[in-house]
Amino acid sequence: LLPRGRAAPAGGGPAPRSGARPRAAHAADAGAGVLLRQTLVILVLYPQAVPSGPTSGMDDDIVSLVKSIVPPLTSKKHKGQDGRIGIIGGCKDYTGAPYFAAISALKVGGDLSHVFCTKDAATVIKSYSPELIVHPVLDSPNAVEEIEKWLPRLHGLVVGPGLGREDFLLKTEVIERSKARDIPIVIDADGLWLVTHQPAVIQGYQKGILTPNFMEFTRLFEALPMNSSDHQRSVMQLSAAMGNLTLVLKGEQDLISDGSKVYSCSVEGSGRRCGGQGDLLCGSMGVMAITEIIMNPSVVAAFGACSLTRQCNNQAFQRHGRSTTTSDMIQEIGPAFRKLFES
Ligand SMILES: NC(=O)C1=CN([C@@H]2O[C@H](COP(=O)(O)OP(=O)(O)OC[C@H]3O[C@@H](n4cnc5c(N)ncnc54)[C@H](O)[C@@H]3O)[C@@H](O)[C@H]2O)[C@@H](O)CC1
Ligand SMILES: Nc1ncnc2c1ncn2[C@@H]1O[C@H](COP(=O)(O)OP(=O)(O)OP(=O)(O)O)[C@@H](O)[C@H]1O
Ligand SMILES: [Mg+2]
């Protein structure tokens, strides 16, 4: 942890926004529990008012905000109200990544999870789980239209897990048409390859969230004319250069920035770094981003999903140790979610 320099800016995390949608109208009990205070450490680094040097302060208001976006489970709702999510990804080489993202979206409480993938990946993904709706459209000649048919029904989109790096035109079109629908778009993995080459595709879109690992971040950072020697500052610079969309640099601490502040999520995970954890993260984030109750829902969703992923890693590791894999972490989503956000 960085030393505590000064208090967080007034109000701490993003401020409440008026005109909340009914789905998100529920506000969970305010205030984090003792456990959360111990485990969720949020540093607000570089508040905009003091751009010249590192400044940090503890702030757990954001935990209350994450709790407040958790929709209540009531008998008054119909299927779909708690989230219909689309995952764009899945090709011959990668079927696990879109599966992990899509199943994680369901496991955090989303109602329906759609995967848009290539034909040869579809049967494989379907056979992993009967809970997913799988559309074998990505390599069809009218892929954009096939996806667009579903867009009006989707509340959020995750672009990239197992998507492959070819066909920029298709991905650009899907992102452009999703932006036109004003839905949250989480971009991960091969979606970030596109953003590295064409930043304008998502630049300035306030409901966009980028979730690079260190390598993906380095590629993005080098593609834009910036230079900085420390991670926190780089994350904030890149977010600002991308038009203040939310950026999550995954790592030992997850660093989250909206271009004016950097939040750090240090929930204890484990030393186990198996592939697929980033897919769990972006899938769960896709659902958490569906809220309009707060001023910067993307930051809150990012923080919530980072905390959850790390907590799942911690719990799975306690059970399975070295043999922990992402499927074991997915089994922990329910208990981890309860522990973090429903207690
Ligand atoms: N089971 C599956 O189907 C999985 C498929 N995946 C997919 O695989 C494709 C390629 O993803 P990659 O993540 O391999 O992307 P890259 O091909 O850009 O590789 C990133 C590389 O960076 C390395 N790396 C990560 N963090 C690092 C750090 N801090 N320092 C140094 N090196 C670091 C990783 O070992 C990896 O080899 C994507 O489509 C992705 O979604 C992954 O999501 C993993 C699981
Ligand atoms: N060194 C670390 N210590 C603790 N947690 C970490 C560490 N690195 C990553 N994580 C956690 O794992 C999650 C996934 O990050 P990671 O860097 O593995 O993503 P990724 O490379 O995109 O994964 P994937 O294999 O799914 O593509 C992050 O949100 C973070 O919580
Ligand atoms: Mg990844």
Write a structural description.
The chain has 343 residues and is of the alpha/beta class. The chain has a single domain (79-342), classed as 3-Layer(aba) Sandwich (UDP-N-acetylmuramoyl-L-alanine:D-glutamate ligase). 40% of the residues lie in helices and 12% in strands. It has 13 helices and ten strands. A ten-stranded mixed sheet has the order 1-10-9-8-7-6-5-2-3-4, with helices on both faces. Helix 3 links the parallel strand 2 (84-88) and strand 3. The longest helix has 24 residues, at 297-320. Residues 1-43 and 46-58 have low confidence and may be disordered. The structure holds ligand NAX, adenosine-5'-triphosphate and magnesium ion (MG). Residues 189, 213, 250-252, 254, 269, 273, 275-279, 281, 306, 309-310 line the site of adenosine-5'-triphosphate.
List its salient traits.
disordered N terminus; 40% helix; 13 helices; 343 residues; UDP-N-acetylmuramoyl-L-alanine:D-glutamate ligase; binds adenosine-5'-triphosphate; alpha/beta; 10 strands; ten-stranded mixed beta sheet
